[in-house]
Automatic annotation (TrEMBL):
Full protein name: ABC transporter ATP-binding protein
Listed InterPro entries: AAA+_ATPase (IPR003593), ABC_AA/LPS_Transport (IPR051120), ABC_transporter-like_ATP-bd (IPR003439), BCA_ABC_TP_C (IPR032823), P-loop_NTPase (IPR027417)
Keyword match ATP-binding: yes
Gene Ontology molecular function terms on file: ATP binding; ATP hydrolysis activity
Keywords for this protein: ATP-binding, Nucleotide-binding, Transport
PROSITE patterns for the chain: ABC_TRANSPORTER_2
GO cellular component, one term: plasma membrane
Annotated Gene3D superfamilies: P-loop containing nucleotide triphosphate hydrolases
Keyword flag Nucleotide-binding: yes
Length: 254
């Protein structure tokens, strides 16, 4: 398990300030829910941690290692994996092949080798076995040899989670994993996230609009508005914070 420390992170796009000196810490093994209205800066922060963006200022450290010094194409190799709001799977590949592709950052065969099964036979067998085990953990083993195309959205969300876990991350970034899911699928996903956190020893940063899910599984919650942190604490503390109520309901903070 690993600690993530975000310290004074700012991000400017021209004259727009998307992040303004944001700081918080996720303890080892914790699930942190990042919440806020649309435009609060959640996705920008998420993209800074995953190295899609380079912040204007600040520091983002995982177990003391400065992630902002790591090139984007090497971030997975430093223990960071993510899912996406819009699925980034390969529809024509099977569930097993999609999961194997997630291990490219640590495999000698590289990205194309993971997908096309090019490389040493022993390494391929080990990779396939690990990928199949992940599919079993997530209840997808029966679909291992079927293409990802035409499967339900909830099923594909679990497949994307399997692919992220194949990279053996220390920090898992979940970008609106409940988007588009039914109530029963959200409940199932919540249980799955807690289970994989425990089984794989993960620290998790979760960006999600589904408040019941965030409050139900998070150890800590960070609330944002206009690029700034407006509250941080347990779900109960953040839920009742006047600044959070104001941000969501438009009422003046007490």
């Amino acid at each position: 398990m690993s600690e993530l420390r975000v310290d004074g992170v700012s991000m400017h796009f021209g004259g727009i300030t998307a992040l303004d000196g944001l700081s918080f810490t996720i303890g080892s093994g914790q699930i942190c829910g990042l919440i806020g209205p649309n435009g609060a800066g959640k996705t920008t922060l998420f993209n800074c941690v995953s190295r899609i963006y380079q912040p204007s200022a600040g520091s983002i450290c995982l177990d003391g290692e400065e992630l902002l010094d790591v090139p984007a194409h090497r971030i997975a190799g430093h223990g960071v994996a993510r899912t996406f709001q819009n699925l980034g799977l390969f529809p024509s590949l099977t569930f097993l092949e999609n999961t194997m592709a997630g291990a490219h950052a640590r495999g000698r065969g590289g990205y194309l080798g993971s997908i096309l099964r090019i490389g040493q036979a022993r390494a391929e067998r080990e990779l396939r076995a690990e990928a199949f085990e992940l599919l079993e953990v997530l209840g997808l083993a029966d679909l291992a040899f079927l293409p990802a195309a035409h499967q339900s959205f909830g099923t594909l969300k679990r497949l994307e989670l399997a692919r992220a876990l194949a990279a053996r991350p220390r920090l898992l970034l979940l970008d609106e994993p409940a988007g588009g899911l039914t109530h029963s699928e959200v409940d199932e996903l919540s249980s799955t996230i807690r289970r994989v956190r425990d089984e794989f020893g993960l620290t998790i940063l979760l960006v999600e609009h589904h408040m019941a899910m965030v409050m139900g599984i998070s150890d800590i919650v960070v609330a944002m508005n206009f690029g700034e942190k407006i509250a941080e604490g347990t779900p109960a503390e953040v839920r009742s914070d006047p600044a959070v109520v104001s941000a969501y309901l438009g009422a003046p903070a007490a």
